[in-house]
Design brief:
This protein is 46% helix and 8% strand. It is mainly alpha-helical and 105 residues long. A two-stranded antiparallel sheet has the order 1-2.
């Protein structure tokens, strides 16, 4: 019986592998298509990892609208709602008061 050569070790394509290629591709200035051809990478697999990273980051971001507060104008309480749980809600904004009155009147 003839002895067989052990199989060649297959390159591990884990997240670290793809992250290194992603950083390299960004800094190279090459398009993803050109980069994948040059380094013999699977274009769709590379895209999978990129979309996975983009998706995971977008879950952590929350859009917030900020309103500047000026120290010169003291806040006036327009209305106070006493809630059943013992807390109270003070309304300082006329638009918020209008919305609450429209919905709960």
């Amino acid at each position: 019986m003839e002895a067989r050569n052990p199989p060649q070790s297959k390159q591990v394509e884990n997240e670290t592998f793809w992250r290194q290629h992603y950083e390299s591709q960004k800094s190279s200035g090459l398009s993803r298509t050109t980069y994948c051809r040059q380094y013999d990478l699977n274009y769709d697999r590379f895209g999978y990892w990129i979309s996975k990273w983009n998706h995971s980051h977008s879950d952590k971001l929350v859009s917030v609208k900020l309103k500047a507060v000026t120290a010169a104008t003291p806040e006036t309480t327009l209305c106070t709602l006493n809630l059943k749980n013992g807390y109270s809600l003070r309304i300082h904004d006329t638009q918020a008061l209008v919305v609450i009155l429209e919905r709960y009147s």
